[in-house]
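Duplicate of #3305? Posting structure anyway:
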């Protein structure tokens, strides 16, 4: 796949330019050419690991009670190995937009492959809003787990196990899977594809590549019988497993720690959300106890 960029000459006119190749010819990597865009990072610029003793301190250790188990996974899609010259699915999208893109979420299934089977049936993120209406891309029925590559082990005492393709988390009592999942996405959101591609930086990136940002605003169609609901695919992120695996682990550690410590202090986080896919305005729910103090 040939990538072209546009540059502005001294007369202010856009001229085509070929970016510098950073991968050898024939590479199946998502990003094969250098682009000047500064990629966003999950967790934001202020994300920092917790101190090594955090989960051994009495503040956490005496308050934590084990609850349900969750598995955080990272997935990619496409038929790159079958047709390397015509990449499909999320990998094909990543190639076109010169971005490392993956789906990140959590499941209660002891075998995350069961969740992968579900999103294959749904063709998760397989649609987008084209100029003439909804359009579908191939390859979004071929999702697979990818290696996470955390750069370190979990902090001692954390109820977390970093495995090759999942991060296993024993959630504290009172923290449901859906609340954990929504808080995970909130903390990943600085690198959310749909959010970033709509930003000035994202739009400039698309303009430099001569691409329509709407193609990267992915949708999923959910059949409900005689009707079909189309929702935004909000679980896609700019993410490099070898670079960002440690950041993902740090985010999970923060979620577990914050919930337990604040719950023990009678200040349980009121993590909540509104249904963005149903047209409500984005906002974070606040802790009403704190707000009235």
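Output from current build:
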């Amino acid at each position: 796949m040939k990538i072209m960029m546009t540059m502005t000459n001294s007369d202010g006119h856009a001229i085509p330019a070929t970016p510098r190749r950073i991968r050898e010819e024939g590479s199946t990597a998502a990003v094969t050419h250098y682009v000047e865009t500064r990629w966003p990072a999950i967790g934001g610029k202020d994300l920092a690991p917790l101190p090594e003793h955090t989960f051994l301190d009495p503040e956490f250790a005496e308050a934590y009670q084990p609850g349900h188990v969750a598995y955080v996974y990272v997935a990619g899609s496409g038929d790159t190995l079958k047709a390397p010259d015509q990449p499909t699915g999320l990998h094909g999208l990543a190639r076109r937009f010169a971005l490392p893109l993956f789906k990140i979420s959590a499941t209660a299934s002891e075998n995350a492959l069961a969740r992968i089977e579900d999103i294959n049936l749904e063709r998760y993120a397989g649609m987008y809003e084209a100029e003439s209406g909804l359009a579908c891309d191939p390859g979004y029925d071929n999702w697979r787990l990818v290696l996470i590559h955390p750069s370190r082990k979990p902090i001692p005492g954390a109820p977390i196990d970093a495995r090759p393709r999942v991060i296993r988390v024993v959630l504290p009592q009172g923290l449901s899977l859906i609340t954990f999942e929504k808080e995970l996405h909130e903390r990943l959101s600085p690198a959310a594809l749909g959010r970033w591609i709509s930003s000035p930086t994202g739009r400039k990136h698309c303009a430099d590549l001569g691409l329509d940002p709407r193609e990267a605003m992915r949708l999923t169609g959910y059949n409900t019988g005689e009707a079909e609901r189309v929702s935004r695919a909000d679980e896609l992120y700019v993410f490099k497993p070898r670079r960002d695996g440690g950041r993902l682990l740090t985010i999970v550690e923060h979620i577990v720690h914050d919930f337990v410590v604040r719950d023990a202090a009678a200040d349980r986080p009121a993590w909540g959300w509104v249904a963005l896919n149903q047209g409500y305005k984005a906002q974070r729910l606040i802790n009403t106890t704190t707000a009235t103090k």
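Confirmed duplicate; merging threads. The radius of gyration is 21 Å. Residues 40-267 form one domain.
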